[in-house]
Amino acid sequence: MNRIDLAGRVVLVTGGGRGLGEAYCRELAHRGAAVVVHDNGSGIGGRGHDPAPAQDVAAAIVDDGGRAVACVSDSSTDAGGREAIMLALREYGRLDAVVANAGIIHDDSFEDWPTDRFEALLRHHLMAAFHVVRPAFAVMKDTGYGRIVFVSSAAGVFGQPRLAGYAAAKTGMLGLMNVVALEGAEFGITANAIMPMAATRMARALMADAADTADGREFLDSLRVDQVAPVVAYLASESCSRTQLVLSAFRGRVAALQIGVTRGWISETGMVSAEDVASHLDEITDTHDLLVPGSIFDEMASLS
Ligand SMILES: NC(=O)c1ccc[n+]([C@@H]2O[C@H](COP(=O)([O-])OP(=O)(O)OC[C@H]3O[C@@H](n4cnc5c(N)ncnc54)[C@H](O)[C@@H]3O)[C@@H](O)[C@H]2O)c1
Q1: Would you say residue 3 lies in a domain?
Q2: Which PANTHER family does the record match to this protein (predicted)?
């Protein structure tokens, strides 16, 4: 297998100033990419602004002999997203890949979730991805090449109590990925996603109770960012020609999510009653021979 080389490529990583995003920036730079380290340095809940995280990561990459520049705008706004894309073009003259990684966290029991916090979660994950990927897509369409990596989460795809806003935003990333992948295909643009786990400030805040026991601390320490960053480097590289892949990565395991539909039960008359659903539920939910459609049209075609 040839080394996956990103020399000459320019990659934008949102939320690149801390945690997993920092690890992505370093891995990409190590493989030769020029990196736009984009991070507004917000608090864990999305409040505040600090240029230091993005600037420090960019400076460390440059000190190591790599190429990097910091962008400290808020990617959850139209202007903030465009600023990051323009910086990539101004500094390096091109943009090859985007890792939509920025995010915040808040947890609450569902009935107590404050509306403003729910909206903030959607803004700092989903809108933050939309506002960088949309202008990046236009640049990539012109050059006929692009790699987009959305950062989703098992907490949304499979569910995690108390994370209503986070789960909704993270699963929304997959809808965005599907459409970008389908519209990007004819222009050489792939869109994939990752569901990481690593003991960053976000994960440690959510698993604060785990840190009370030796076993819990050991488990947290076993979730390392360097077990995830190479997976993102692959998805952001030319070597990855697949699109609509969703890879789960933690503790050294890399696996693929399958979003499929069962073969189901088919009414002979075309009419369906509520009683039919109840009496055929085993057949409806039988996961044997799962169909994994690449688009809504694939699912429709499966019945024609
Ligand atoms: N750590 C995990 O186990 C885990 C699991 C699944 C998904 N994720 C996702 O991975 C991503 C990185 O998480 P992390 O654990 O490294 O968290 P982190 O808090 O260490 O880093 C997130 C970074 O995003 C930045 N950010 C937030 N909103 C921004 C905005 N609007 N514009 C620019 N920057 C912004 C923050 O300043 C911060 O530096 C997040 O999207 C998170 O949801 C993490």
Answers
A1: no
A2: DEHYDROGENASES, SHORT CHAIN, SCP2 DOMAIN-CONTAINING PROTEIN
